């Protein structure tokens, strides 16, 4: 039995670089979640007044 030869840590590509599309999608999802939470709070406040 033998193991694979060792590699330098720098030579291993992790593939975790952020692309522009990932950043845009994350921002859009964050903003839409904030709008949904604010809308829920406003709906609860207006519903309690009646």
TrEMBL record:
This is Uroplakin-2. One of its GO terms (cellular component) is apical plasma membrane. Pfam families: Uroplakin_II. Keywords: Membrane, Transmembrane, Transmembrane helix. It comes from the Eukaryota. The keyword Heme does not apply. One of its GO terms (biological process) is epithelial cell differentiation. The lineage of its organism: Eukaryota, Metazoa, Chordata, Craniata, Vertebrata. The chain crosses the membrane at residues 21-46. The keyword Transmembrane applies.
């Amino acid at each position: 039995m033998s193991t694979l030869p060792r590699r330098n840590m720098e030579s291993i590509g992790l593939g975790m670089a952020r692309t522009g599309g990932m950043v845009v999608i994350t921002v859009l999802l964050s903003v839409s979640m904030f709008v949904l939470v604010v809308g829920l709070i406003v709906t609860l406040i207006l519903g309690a007044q009646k």
